Hints:
2 copies of one chain form a homodimer. Chain A has 334 residues and is α/β, with parallel strands linked by helices. The first copy, chain A, has a single domain (47-329), classed as Alpha/Beta hydrolase fold, catalytic domain (Rossmann fold), CATH 3.40.50.1820. The first copy, chain A, has 10 helices and 10 strands. Chain A has an 8-stranded mixed sheet, sandwiched between helices. The first copy, chain A, is globular. The N and C termini of chain A lie far apart (47 Å). The mean pLDDT of chain A is 94. Chains A and B meet through strand 1, strand 2, helix 1, helix 7 and helix 9 of A and strand 1, strand 2, helix 1, helix 7 and helix 9 of B.
Amino acid sequence: MTGRDAASPHSGQIVPAHELPVPSTVSAELQARIGLTATMSFPADVPTTNDGWDRQYNPDPAANRTRIDALLVDNNLVMEKKDIGGVHCYHIIPRELGDPENGCTIVNFHGGGYVGGRGEAGLNEALFVASVGRLATVAVDYRMPPEHPFPAAVDDADAVWLTLSSQLGPARVGLFGTSAGGGIILCLVQRLIARREAVPGAIVCGTPWSDLSETGDSYFVNRYADIVRYEGSLGVKALQYAGGRDLKDPLLSPVYGDFHGFPPTLLLSGTRDLFLSNTVRVERKLRDAGASSHLIVYEGQSHGRYLSGLDVPETRVAAQDMASFFRQHILPKS
Amino acid sequence: MTGRDAASPHSGQIVPAHELPVPSTVSAELQARIGLTATMSFPADVPTTNDGWDRQYNPDPAANRTRIDALLVDNNLVMEKKDIGGVHCYHIIPRELGDPENGCTIVNFHGGGYVGGRGEAGLNEALFVASVGRLATVAVDYRMPPEHPFPAAVDDADAVWLTLSSQLGPARVGLFGTSAGGGIILCLVQRLIARREAVPGAIVCGTPWSDLSETGDSYFVNRYADIVRYEGSLGVKALQYAGGRDLKDPLLSPVYGDFHGFPPTLLLSGTRDLFLSNTVRVERKLRDAGASSHLIVYEGQSHGRYLSGLDVPETRVAAQDMASFFRQHILPKS
């Protein structure tokens, strides 16, 4: 049950060269996005600094800021920078909420393979869910490698969690995140349970990076169907984050950890997601541990594709799925 | 949102020729099974009679009977043929149950693309779940094309349902089935709701054939990862079943039908399942209709792979997942 999938002693199937069509079962908007990226190529160079990664993930910061400002106005949100537990965060509040401390707060950990999404480059998911779900949202600008490898990201998540949960009560805080963000959440909750501390009211892990080693069926089945790649991309980022630690260490790859005591968990993936196995292997562990888990697999979607943008219907559906899950599990009964 | 996936106006991705490894994240027993079928080829001829299909699906009936007899003894089951509502069925009862009429009954509709699995060739799933789950089980030997096309299969399901639900009460009957069997269940429940009649206590649809047209992302993403094929195989069977009806007619392809009023539904699929989209598109419809739905996607599994055999751990896991779902939803509270 260990080792890279290619380590199986049996010969696999031969897949002939072919064209994989854009799915007709997603919205026209998403079809157009998938069509655009079908022939996309990725930068081959591997940055060795945070600034270098920023240039890959956020090549035009001014344009990104303009887009965010418009999104805040269009969706009636206020956003301010905030230090929470010593960690740089953004607090995003739907204007109609008034004093959000009376409600619940959901906390987002952005994706980006542990190296991308610093600062304003990592706000998409938080903004989308705050816009659609109308919940007070904190976006955590956690530290990242190369300059801050493991355990900086989870330490930052921990510090934010401790501050917010003591202010609001753990059951009124929810955590959500996609890809590396989902992995951070799984690691944080395992850490809290190991310390015998209270867990969040609910968590949402979107296509979580639960196994940093290239293990799991969908790493291979969807190798050419997804637009993210392990070889030369995710694999490089995993090594920068791990800082010499074994990629199967449960502190890096939470699928190998313990899931007893987990709060209600929503897991998201897609039919062409490189991380489908990362997602369903966690769901199995949660089920076997007696936790309340729920899985949604989005039709026609690759890794994190539901974060395409608020002009794409599938983004609104996913944001609503997340917000509904939080409303069901963490809103105070009053 | 309609039309074959290849009908999207956008160009798709080019997938180069490659070998898809056997997943290392499934049991050694299942790895061996997957390895065996990796190079399997399918019969090219298309039978035009039920006997012809039987020869493909059940080439050695005597060996199959010997296997079933051993399975009944090993698992302490009694099986007898029974006419239920005019339909040929098998009643499988765990010996320790005593009078099973006091409990609940689960009713299985076998898979086989609407053409395979007649008689004793269609008993696997019912026997596996009865063995592991220790529930009284009815296996329905519904009529099939070429001799009995649509709507014979659903008419037979309907007749069995009406008899059992009036004997036991609808809430104490559960329905389960894989592939075509899952499709029959979805069609039957839509028919019951259209007639404003009571629905089963719970249903389990394993990788259901919800769309008989080749529509849905996984028909393409998993085209070479799964061992079942649409072209020349499923497509031929769909046409024999449809008897001239449009393959997107909701009476054939229930994903296009209405899901309001559905009972608690468990859906099963796998990470390399050709029917992953058939499964998750139904889950989305159930969710949107406010039904209680639950999705499990098994790691490393192609279409119906969890029916490999009781010597494969994954078969026992799936049978236990199904039985647990029924125990949770339909066992009488006494």
